[in-house]
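Progress note, sequence design subtask.
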């Protein structure tokens, strides 16, 4: 595995791949890698001859009071995991390499509508930072395939919209959420949880699954179910930001004809923000 930190060298190596007729998959990450990330790498290797993984803690997707300074930075451990996982290139650029004119003066890529609901309502500007860095990585690497985790479902939907709207010739793959045996979705931020909080955190996934199983259709019955799920999480010690059933394609509110759905939630547990979701399909409503 080659570790590359500058775009010029990266382009030279990628050009060699393309001259040999090899396809390239990109797995963008912010590091702090766990088994969920490695499942993305595995999926990428099934769809392309060459795999590039980026490790870059992107400052533009963090709010002023969020955990940018404390976000896990475990580069050497990450590098060993990626090498064992068969990655061809680890791209680990500096902030100056990614934002040559500074992050405050960057060209912004924004997906309206989808970026300001759900997580976007509680983290203003977050998704603009996400789409801007992902667009830069797409422009820099020009992958044939890019892989994202389903756990960050709203992010996945926004990136799919960006790719479609900008006519990018990139196939977006979603890798299923990797969970502990208890159901807790793996996240780099899980390391912030205390032992007691980690045990209680399992209730989030259980509540999502129960909402899926009890889905009554759209309207007041759904609003009542969502509210009961929020109250259940509060009793378990969470501070919910939202708990909502949406259409999985466009994240709009469901109607009686909606078939493909996703129930999403974001909560605070102690000092840790957790997100999760469950996809499901309904018939005959």
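Output:
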């Amino acid at each position: 595995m080659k570790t590359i930190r500058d775009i010029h060298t990266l382009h030279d190596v990628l050009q060699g791949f393309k001259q040999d007729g090899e396809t390239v998959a990109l797995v963008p990450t912010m590091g702090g890698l766990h088994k969920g990330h490695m499942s993305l790498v595995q999926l990428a290797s099934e769809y392309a001859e060459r795999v590039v993984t980026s490790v870059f803690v992107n400052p533009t997707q963090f709010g002023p009071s969020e955990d940018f300074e404390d976000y896990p930075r475990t580069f050497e451990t990450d590098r060993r995991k990626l090498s064992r996982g068969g990655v061809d290139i680890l791209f680990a650029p500096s902030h100056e390499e990614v934002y040559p004119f500074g992050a405050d003066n960057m060209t912004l890529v924004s997906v309206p509508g989808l970026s300001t609901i759900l997580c976007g309502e509680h983290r203003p500007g977050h998704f603009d930072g996400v789409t801007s860095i992902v667009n830069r990585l797409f422009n820099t690497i020009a992958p044939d395939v890019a892989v994202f985790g389903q756990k960050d479902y709203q992010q996945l939907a926004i990136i799919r919209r960006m790719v479609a709207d900008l006519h990018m010739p990139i196939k977006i793959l979603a890798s299923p959420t990797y969970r502990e045996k208890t159901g807790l979705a793996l996240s780099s931020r899980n390391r912030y949880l205390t032992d007691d909080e980690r045990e209680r955190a399992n209730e989030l996934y259980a509540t999502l699954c129960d909402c899926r199983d009890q889905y009554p259709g759209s309207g007041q019955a759904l609003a009542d179910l969502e509210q009961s799920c929020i109250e259940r999480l509060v009793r378990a010690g969470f501070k919910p930001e939202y708990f909502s059933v949406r259409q999985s394609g466009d994240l709009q509110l469901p109607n009686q004809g909606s078939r493909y759905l996703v129930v999403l939630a974001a909560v605070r547990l102690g000092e840790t923000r957790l997100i999760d979701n469950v996809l499901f399909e309904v018939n005959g409503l």
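Strands lie at 2-4, 24-29, 50-55, 89-91, 145-149, 171-175, 239-247, 260-269, 272-281. Work on this subtask will continue into the next period as scheduled.
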